[in-house]
UniProtKB/TrEMBL annotation:
Topology of the protein relative to the lipid bilayer: Multi-pass membrane protein
Predominant location category: membrane
PANTHER family in UniProt: MEMBRANE PROTEIN, MEMBRANE PROTEIN-RELATED
Span of domain DUF3817: 19-116
Chain ranges passing through the membrane: 21-45, 65-85, 92-111
Keywords, alphabetical: Cell membrane, Membrane, Transmembrane, Transmembrane helix
Protein name as catalogued: DUF3817 domain-containing protein
Compartments, record wording: Cell membrane
Length: 135
C-alpha cells in the first residue's frame, strides 16, 4: 500500500492570506486592548458600589458603541484566520488556536509572530506549486 503524495501548497496564496491575517491580528489586538480599557473605565474606575453597576452614562455609551465594533473586528479576524488555515491545510487544533489568539488581550501579537514562524517553516518544508514551476 502506498501513501498518497501530499498535495502542494500555493505559496503565493498562502503568503497573501498570511499578510491579511497579520494585519487583522494587529487590529484585533489593539481593538481588544481598547475594549479592556473601556470596560475598566466603565466598571472599575467609574463603577458604582456593585461590580456590574455603572454610574457613568458616558462610559456606558462608549461601551455600547465600541463593543459591537470590536465584535465585527473579531469576526473579520476569525474569517481571515480560517482563510489562512484553509490555504495552509492545517489541522483543526491549529484553527482553534488561531481563534483563541484573538480572545486574550495581547495574545494576538504573540500569536501573529508564532503563526508567521509556522507559515514560514511549513512553506520551506512542504512542497509548493511554485517549487514545481521553478524546476
Amino acid at each position: 500500500m502506498t501513501v498518497p503524495a501530499e498535495r502542494p501548497l500555493d505559496e503565493v496564496a498562502a503568503r497573501t492570506s498570511f499578510a491579511r491575517f497579520r494585519v487583522a491580528s494587529i487590529v484585533e489586538g489593539i481593538a481588544l486592548l481598547v475594549l479592556v480599557g473601556i470596560m475598566t473605565m466603565r466598571y472599575v474606575v467609574f463603577g458604582g458600589d456593585a461590580w456590574f453597576t455603572s454610574t457613568s452614562p458616558f462610559w456606558e455609551q462608549v461601551s455600547s458603541v465600541w463593543s459591537p465594533i470590536h465584535g465585527l473586528i473579531y469576526m473579520v479576524y476569525v474569517v481571515l484566520g480560517f482563510d489562512l488555515w484553509m490555504k495552509m491545510r492545517w489541522g483543526l487544533p491549529r484553527m482553534l488556536l488561531l481563534m483563541f489568539f484573538g480572545v486574550v488581550p495581547v495574545l494576538s501579537f504573540f500569536g501573529e509572530r508564532w503563526t508567521h514562524q509556522r507559515v514560514e517553516s511549513d512553506l520551506a518544508r512542504r512542497p509548493t506549486i511554485q517549487d514545481q514551476e521553478r524546476v
